[in-house]
Protein backbone atom coordinates (compact mmCIF):
# COMPACT_ATOMS: atom_id res chain seq x y z
CA UNK A 1 0.00 0.00 0.00
CA UNK A 2 1.41 3.35 -1.03
CA UNK A 3 1.65 6.17 1.47
CA UNK A 4 -1.28 8.39 0.64
CA UNK A 5 -1.43 12.15 0.63
CA UNK A 6 -5.13 12.51 1.39
CA UNK A 7 -7.12 15.70 1.61
CA UNK A 8 -10.77 16.25 2.53
CA UNK A 9 -12.25 19.42 1.05
CA UNK A 10 -15.69 20.66 2.07
CA UNK A 11 -17.76 22.40 -0.61
CA UNK A 12 -20.84 24.13 0.81
CA UNK A 13 -23.86 24.88 -1.34
CA UNK A 14 -27.45 25.92 -0.75
CA UNK A 15 -30.37 24.36 -2.57
CA UNK A 16 -33.84 23.19 -1.60
CA UNK A 17 -33.49 19.79 -3.26
CA UNK A 18 -30.74 17.88 -5.04
CA UNK A 19 -32.03 15.86 -7.99
CA UNK A 20 -30.29 13.00 -9.76
CA UNK A 21 -29.92 15.15 -12.89
CA UNK A 22 -28.31 17.94 -10.85
CA UNK A 23 -25.80 15.46 -9.43
CA UNK A 24 -24.95 14.41 -13.00
CA UNK A 25 -24.48 18.06 -14.01
CA UNK A 26 -22.13 18.62 -11.06
CA UNK A 27 -20.14 15.56 -12.10
CA UNK A 28 -19.80 16.81 -15.69
CA UNK A 29 -18.85 20.35 -14.65
CA UNK A 30 -16.06 19.17 -12.33
CA UNK A 31 -14.85 16.62 -14.88
CA UNK A 32 -14.63 19.32 -17.56
CA UNK A 33 -12.49 21.33 -15.16
CA UNK A 34 -10.20 18.38 -14.46
CA UNK A 35 -9.74 17.67 -18.17
CA UNK A 36 -8.24 21.12 -18.67
CA UNK A 37 -6.31 21.33 -15.39
CA UNK A 38 -4.60 18.00 -16.05
CA UNK A 39 -3.76 18.94 -19.66
CA UNK A 40 -5.99 16.29 -21.22
CA UNK A 41 -7.21 19.07 -23.52
CA UNK A 42 -5.40 22.31 -24.47
CA UNK A 43 -8.34 24.63 -23.71
CA UNK A 44 -11.32 24.68 -21.38
CA UNK A 45 -13.89 22.16 -22.59
CA UNK A 46 -16.38 24.54 -24.25
CA UNK A 47 -13.57 26.28 -26.18
CA UNK A 48 -12.06 22.94 -27.21
CA UNK A 49 -15.49 21.76 -28.38
CA UNK A 50 -16.08 24.94 -30.42
CA UNK A 51 -12.64 25.00 -32.07
CA UNK A 52 -12.81 21.29 -32.90
CA UNK A 53 -16.17 21.82 -34.62
CA UNK A 54 -14.51 24.40 -36.89
CA UNK A 55 -11.72 22.10 -38.07
CA UNK A 56 -11.94 21.11 -41.76
CA UNK A 57 -13.03 17.66 -42.89
CA UNK A 58 -10.14 15.50 -44.10
CA UNK A 59 -12.05 12.89 -46.08
CA UNK A 60 -11.19 14.59 -49.36
CA UNK A 61 -8.21 12.83 -50.95
CA UNK A 62 -7.21 16.06 -52.68
CA UNK A 63 -6.80 17.98 -49.43
CA UNK A 64 -3.71 20.18 -49.14
CA UNK A 65 -3.48 19.68 -45.38
CA UNK A 66 -0.20 18.11 -44.25
CA UNK A 67 -0.42 14.46 -43.15
CA UNK A 68 0.68 15.24 -39.56
CA UNK A 69 -1.94 17.99 -39.34
CA UNK A 70 -4.58 15.55 -40.59
CA UNK A 71 -3.60 13.16 -37.83
CA UNK A 72 -3.81 15.94 -35.24
CA UNK A 73 -7.30 16.87 -36.46
CA UNK A 74 -8.42 13.23 -36.23
CA UNK A 75 -7.03 12.95 -32.70
CA UNK A 76 -8.79 16.14 -31.61
CA UNK A 77 -12.12 14.86 -32.92
CA UNK A 78 -11.57 11.44 -31.33
CA UNK A 79 -10.80 13.05 -27.96
CA UNK A 80 -13.96 15.17 -28.11
CA UNK A 81 -16.02 12.12 -29.07
CA UNK A 82 -14.59 10.11 -26.16
CA UNK A 83 -15.37 12.92 -23.72
CA UNK A 84 -18.96 13.25 -24.91
CA UNK A 85 -19.52 9.49 -24.80
CA UNK A 86 -18.05 9.44 -21.32
CA UNK A 87 -20.55 12.05 -20.16
CA UNK A 88 -23.53 10.30 -21.76
CA UNK A 89 -22.70 6.89 -20.34
CA UNK A 90 -21.53 7.77 -16.86
CA UNK A 91 -23.01 11.07 -15.69
CA UNK A 92 -25.77 9.34 -13.74
CA UNK A 93 -23.80 6.37 -12.46
CA UNK A 94 -21.23 5.84 -9.79
CA UNK A 95 -18.10 4.93 -11.64
CA UNK A 96 -14.39 4.35 -11.19
CA UNK A 97 -11.53 4.04 -13.62
CA UNK A 98 -10.01 0.54 -13.78
CA UNK A 99 -6.46 1.77 -14.35
CA UNK A 100 -3.95 2.68 -11.66
CA UNK A 101 -3.85 6.42 -11.17
CA UNK A 102 -1.34 8.69 -9.47
CA UNK A 103 -4.15 10.89 -8.22
CA UNK A 104 -7.89 10.53 -7.72
CA UNK A 105 -10.72 12.83 -6.79
CA UNK A 106 -13.80 11.42 -5.07
CA UNK A 107 -16.99 13.45 -5.34
CA UNK A 108 -19.41 12.74 -2.47
CA UNK A 109 -22.91 14.18 -2.60
CA UNK A 110 -25.60 14.47 0.07
CA UNK A 111 -28.85 12.55 -0.26
CA UNK A 112 -30.44 12.87 -3.70
CA UNK A 113 -34.21 13.24 -4.03
CA UNK A 114 -35.75 11.00 -6.68
CA UNK A 115 -39.27 12.47 -6.49
CA UNK A 116 -38.55 15.85 -8.03
CA UNK A 117 -38.50 16.74 -11.72
CA UNK A 118 -35.34 18.48 -12.81
CA UNK A 119 -37.21 20.79 -15.21
CA UNK A 120 -38.91 22.40 -12.23
CA UNK A 121 -35.56 23.23 -10.66
CA UNK A 122 -33.64 24.37 -13.74
CA UNK A 123 -32.91 27.87 -12.38
CA UNK A 124 -31.58 26.50 -9.11
CA UNK A 125 -29.45 24.00 -11.08
CA UNK A 126 -27.55 26.76 -12.88
CA UNK A 127 -26.98 28.64 -9.63
CA UNK A 128 -25.90 25.43 -7.91
CA UNK A 129 -23.25 24.61 -10.54
CA UNK A 130 -21.80 28.14 -10.31
CA UNK A 131 -21.63 27.92 -6.51
CA UNK A 132 -19.76 24.64 -6.52
CA UNK A 133 -17.41 25.36 -9.44
CA UNK A 134 -16.35 28.71 -7.98
CA UNK A 135 -15.29 27.03 -4.74
CA UNK A 136 -13.48 24.22 -6.57
CA UNK A 137 -11.58 26.67 -8.81
CA UNK A 138 -10.58 28.88 -5.88
CA UNK A 139 -9.56 26.02 -3.58
CA UNK A 140 -5.80 26.05 -2.92
CA UNK A 141 -6.11 22.60 -1.31
CA UNK A 142 -7.24 21.11 -4.62
CA UNK A 143 -4.74 23.01 -6.76
CA UNK A 144 -1.87 21.99 -4.44
CA UNK A 145 -2.72 18.35 -5.17
CA UNK A 146 -3.63 18.40 -8.84
CA UNK A 147 -1.87 21.43 -10.30
CA UNK A 148 1.29 22.16 -8.32
CA UNK A 149 2.42 18.58 -7.90
CA UNK A 150 4.32 16.78 -10.63
CA UNK A 151 1.65 14.21 -11.47
CA UNK A 152 1.74 12.57 -14.92
CA UNK A 153 -0.43 14.44 -17.40
CA UNK A 154 -3.95 13.06 -18.01
CA UNK A 155 -3.56 10.67 -15.07
CA UNK A 156 -6.14 11.96 -12.59
CA UNK A 157 -9.51 10.24 -12.35
CA UNK A 158 -12.82 11.27 -10.83
CA UNK A 159 -14.90 8.92 -8.69
CA UNK A 160 -18.56 9.67 -8.00
CA UNK A 161 -19.94 8.69 -4.58
CA UNK A 162 -23.70 9.28 -4.82
CA UNK A 163 -26.32 8.61 -2.16
CA UNK A 164 -29.95 8.46 -3.21
CA UNK A 165 -32.83 8.65 -0.75
CA UNK A 166 -34.46 5.49 0.56
CA UNK A 167 -37.39 5.46 -1.85
CA UNK A 168 -34.92 4.94 -4.69
CA UNK A 169 -33.20 2.13 -2.79
CA UNK A 170 -29.58 3.01 -3.55
CA UNK A 171 -26.70 4.17 -1.40
CA UNK A 172 -22.97 4.02 -1.91
CA UNK A 173 -20.56 4.51 0.97
CA UNK A 174 -16.84 5.13 1.22
CA UNK A 175 -16.14 1.44 1.87
CA UNK A 176 -17.12 0.74 -1.76
CA UNK A 177 -14.00 2.61 -2.82
CA UNK A 178 -11.56 0.93 -0.43
CA UNK A 179 -10.01 -1.27 -3.11
CA UNK A 180 -9.30 1.78 -5.24
CA UNK A 181 -7.89 4.16 -2.64
CA UNK A 182 -4.29 3.25 -3.45
CA UNK A 183 -3.54 6.54 -5.22
CA UNK A 184 -0.69 8.57 -3.81
CA UNK A 185 -2.74 11.76 -4.04
CA UNK A 186 -6.38 11.48 -3.08
CA UNK A 187 -8.82 14.37 -2.70
CA UNK A 188 -12.35 13.86 -1.40
CA UNK A 189 -14.82 16.63 -2.25
CA UNK A 190 -17.59 16.57 0.33
CA UNK A 191 -20.56 18.46 -1.09
CA UNK A 192 -22.46 19.73 1.94
CA UNK A 193 -25.92 21.22 1.64
CA UNK A 194 -26.44 24.19 3.94
CA UNK A 195 -29.69 25.68 5.21
CA UNK A 196 -33.03 23.97 5.64
CA UNK A 197 -33.78 20.80 3.72
CA UNK A 198 -37.41 20.24 4.57
CA UNK A 199 -39.86 18.19 2.53
CA UNK A 200 -41.00 20.05 -0.58
CA UNK A 201 -44.17 19.17 -2.46
CA UNK A 202 -43.54 21.52 -5.37
CA UNK A 203 -43.45 18.75 -7.98
CA UNK A 204 -46.12 16.47 -6.54
CA UNK A 205 -48.52 19.42 -6.16
CA UNK A 206 -48.42 20.36 -9.84
CA UNK A 207 -51.62 19.05 -11.44
CA UNK A 208 -50.11 18.83 -14.93
CA UNK A 209 -47.50 16.37 -13.65
CA UNK A 210 -50.23 14.33 -12.01
CA UNK A 211 -51.96 14.16 -15.39
CA UNK A 212 -48.71 13.09 -17.05
CA UNK A 213 -48.36 10.24 -14.59
CA UNK A 214 -52.02 9.27 -14.98
CA UNK A 215 -51.66 8.85 -18.74
CA UNK A 216 -48.17 7.29 -18.46
CA UNK A 217 -46.50 10.23 -20.19
CA UNK A 218 -43.61 10.23 -17.76
CA UNK A 219 -41.01 7.55 -18.21
CA UNK A 220 -40.78 5.41 -15.11
CA UNK A 221 -38.14 2.94 -14.06
CA UNK A 222 -39.31 -0.64 -13.88
CA UNK A 223 -39.87 -1.80 -10.37
CA UNK A 224 -38.15 -4.94 -9.27
CA UNK A 225 -35.16 -6.31 -7.42
CA UNK A 226 -32.56 -4.58 -9.54
CA UNK A 227 -29.31 -4.13 -7.66
CA UNK A 228 -27.33 -0.91 -7.94
CA UNK A 229 -23.60 -1.05 -7.44
CA UNK A 230 -20.28 0.50 -8.39
CA UNK A 231 -19.87 0.81 -12.17
CA UNK A 232 -16.59 0.60 -14.06
CA UNK A 233 -16.12 2.68 -17.16
CA UNK A 234 -15.48 0.55 -20.23
CA UNK A 235 -13.19 3.03 -21.96
CA UNK A 236 -10.86 5.87 -21.12
CA UNK A 237 -9.97 9.27 -22.54
CA UNK A 238 -6.47 9.34 -23.93
CA UNK A 239 -6.36 13.13 -24.14
CA UNK A 240 -5.09 15.46 -26.83
CA UNK A 241 -1.73 17.24 -26.90
CA UNK A 242 -1.48 20.29 -29.13
CA UNK A 243 1.54 20.12 -31.49
CA UNK A 244 2.76 22.48 -34.20
CA UNK A 245 3.04 21.09 -37.72
CA UNK A 246 5.59 23.04 -39.78
CA UNK A 247 5.22 25.94 -37.37
CA UNK A 248 1.43 26.01 -37.65
CA UNK A 249 -1.25 24.94 -35.18
CA UNK A 250 -4.25 23.00 -36.45
CA UNK A 251 -6.46 25.64 -34.82
CA UNK A 252 -5.31 28.06 -37.52
CA UNK A 253 -6.84 25.72 -40.13
CA UNK A 254 -10.57 26.42 -39.93
CA UNK A 255 -13.47 25.91 -42.31
Keywords:
single chain; 255 residues; alpha/beta; Cell Cycle, Spindle Assembly Checkpoint Protein, Chain A; four-stranded parallel beta sheet; two-stranded parallel ribbon; 6 helices; 33% helix; 17% strand; MAD2L1BP_domain_sf
Give your account of this protein's structure.
- With 255 residues, the chain is α/β, with parallel strands linked by helices.
- The chain has a single domain (5-252), classed as Cell Cycle, Spindle Assembly Checkpoint Protein, Chain A, CATH 3.30.900.
- Helix content is 33%, strand content 17%.
- It contains six helices and six strands; from the N terminus they run βαααββααββαβ.
- It has helices at 20-37, 45-53, 67-90, 122-138, 140-146, 207-214; strands spanning 5-14, 95-96, 103-112, 156-164, 185-194, 231-232.
- A four-stranded parallel β-sheet has the order 1-5-3-4, with helices on one face.
- The longest helix is centred in the first third of the chain and has 24 residues, at 67-90.
- The protein starts with a strand and ends in a 23-residue tail after the last strand.
- The model is unreliable at 92-100, 164-177, 206-215 and 217-234 (pLDDT under 50).
Amino acid sequence: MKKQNNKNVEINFSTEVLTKEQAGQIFIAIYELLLYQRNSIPFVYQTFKYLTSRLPQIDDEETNIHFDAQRQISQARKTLEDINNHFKRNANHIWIHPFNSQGSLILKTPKICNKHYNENHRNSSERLIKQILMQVVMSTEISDHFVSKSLPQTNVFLQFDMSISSEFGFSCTEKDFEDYNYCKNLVILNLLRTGESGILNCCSDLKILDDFEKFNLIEKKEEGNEEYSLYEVDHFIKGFKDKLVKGQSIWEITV
